[in-house]
Amino acid sequence: MYLKTFLFGLPSIILIMLFVLGPIIMTFYYSFTNMALTGAAAADTQFVGFDNFVRMFQDPSFKTSVLNTIIFLIASAVIGQQIVGFLVAYLMKQKARPFRRVIGILVLAGWITPEIVVAFVWFAYLSDQGTLNIMLGFLGIKPVAWLLNFPLISVIFVNIWHGAAFSMLMYQAALDDIPQEVEEASRIDGANAWQRLWRITLPIIKGSAVTNMVLVTLQTLGVFTLIYALTGGGPGEKTTTLPIFMYDQAFVNYQLGYGTAISLVLLLIGITLSLIYIRFLKTE
Fold first, then answer.
1. How many independent structural domains does the chain possess?
2. What are the transmembrane regions (predicted)?
């Protein structure tokens, strides 16, 4: 019986080994080499031990990219998408189905739009001669170079706009699963709207909230196209997150070994955050 089960699962195991574990193992190995696209290292790749990691943690640009990644992650994923997604789902809970359908389509439109398209749309909106500055001009407000003066805030806002729909779907499903009897009983007991939200709704959907937090965090850690198309990581290094820094080192500076080491750190950060979230869910 166990042999049959193993044979049925063997194709899945092989696919996981090839397309999941294989790249992870290769990434782990290449991060300890001086692999490059040009020069002597391209012809003769050598094992360099922890040199890439020593260089990384001594690199001021790496420290800047880590700080930008933390700010971008907390502001746009942990706070922004969670709050916006929950608020939209909560406010639509008791609304009529046609209203929910229209709002849902409008919110989902931003999520299903490819990142590169979203980036160009918002670039046209936030640029010096963009739509936002034109509207501000009608109000007598001088134009603002949003992507130059407030680059990190701009990409955070765009990412919230683009990704909040996923959180909305997660919370909408969780809110719809709350038994109406529980809410009716809390009303009868005299609980106001805030008490019902804080003591009834949030504890019940806690599991969905943590699951959503894990998925949104991992997705936000890997955001590349949106930032790169909007700002290119600039001006300077103000919007250079770890994926942007990794790309620059690997494919602009041609240092594949160093870029792979950065990607390994990014992978470890994602795994660590996921374990923290899961641990929090179990302890709570």
1. 1
2. 7-30, 70-91, 103-124, 144-161, 209-230, 256-278
Query: Is 231 in contact with 151 (CB distance < 8 Å)?
Result: yes
With respect to residue 242, please indicate whether it lies within any of the assigned structural domains.
yes
Q: Are 78 and 217 in contact (CB under 8 A)?
A: yes
Over the stretch 181-222, which tens digit does the pLDDT of each residue have? 877 777 777 777 787 778 888 888 888 888 888 889 989 998
| Spatial contact of 131 and 124, defined as CB atoms under 8 Å apart | yes
CATH number of the domain encompassing residue 72: 1.10.3720.10
The boundaries of the domain holding residue 245 are 31-180+209-283
H-state helical runs in 74-150: 82-92, 97-112, 115-126, 131-138, 146-149
Query: Whole-structure pTM over 0.70, yes or no?
Result: yes
Cα(263)–Cα(245) distance, integer angstroms: 10
User: Any idea how long the chain is?
Assistant: 284
